[in-house]
Amino acid sequence: MGVLEGVSMTERWLLQYDEARSQTDNIAVLIRRRDRAAADPVLKSKLSLEVRQEMYRFSTKVRDLEDRLEEHARMKGEGKLTVRELQRRRGLIETLKNKNRQLEEINTAEQQRTITFGNIEPSAIIPVNDLEENILERQSQIILTQDEQLSQLDSSVSRIKNLGYVINTELEEQQRLLDDIDQHVDRTSSNLSIVQSRLKEVLKSHPHTCTCVMVLLLIVLIALIWIS
Predict the structure, then answer these.
(1) How far is CA 148 from the centre of its chain?
(2) How buried is 152 (Cβ within 10 angstroms: 0-12 exposed, 13-18 middle, 19+ buried)?
(3) Which of 35, 118, 126, 175 could be stapled to 122 by a disulfide with Cβ–Cβ 3.0 to 4.6 Å?
(4) Residue 103: what are its φ and ψ, rounded to 5°?
(5) Model confidence at 118, in pLDDT bands (50, 70, 90)?
(6) Residue 87 in contact with residue 96, Cβ under 8 Å?
(7) Burial category of 143 from C-beta neighbours within 10 Å (exposed 0-12, middle 13-18, buried 19 and up)
């Protein structure tokens, strides 16, 4: 535990994961030693007990890693893991679980073979190299699936971003049209004010020409409406 002192929770989790992954290699070595000890029942029994103990410790460690990762997922603020990092670590745990299942299958098969045939040379045990290849293949499939999901998420975000850009452009165009309408209304109001002012001046200076001015005003209004 002294090595883990002063280490953050996320780094501690990675260190514990490395320990669990190394433990699977140790279990595989024990299984090979046990299978080669077919001629020595005492040694084989001792190694079988060690295999079971190590596998129990390994299963406990995997469950602890999974529980700690869920605690990380509920964290807020500084130290919180990203969604992508959480997915990556869950993939690592799934890899450990798969390896644990395969080791258990190998151990169970050996125990069944011993019960059925006795301590003879093992010939039907799955090679450890094949086990490693299967684990790597499954891990690659998990990573590919995660990459596809992230790619789909990225495409969705890009579409939403483009839609927001189109909406923003349309709003700017509508605002420009409204500004043009406001300017047009202001010019028309200004023109009407000028006409009203001149009309008042004409009426004051020539009261008898009211009828003519009304006709002139009507013509000006028609002209203004036509120009608008």
Answers:
(1) 11
(2) exposed
(3) 35
(4) -65, -40
(5) very low
(6) no
(7) middle
Q: Find out whether 55 and 100 touch, Cβ atoms under 8 Å.
A: yes
Contact assessment for residue 89 and residue 143, using Cβ atoms and an 8 Å cutoff: no
CA 67/CA 8 separation, integer angstroms: 16
Cα separation of the two ends of the chain: 86
Please state the rounded mean pLDDT for residues 137-160: 76
Higher local confidence (pLDDT), 213 or 99? 99
What are the helix and strand counts (H, E) for the chain? 5, 0
Residues in the chain: 228
- Coil, helix or strand at residue 168: helix
Provide the whole-model pTM: 0.44
CA distance 210 to 139: 98
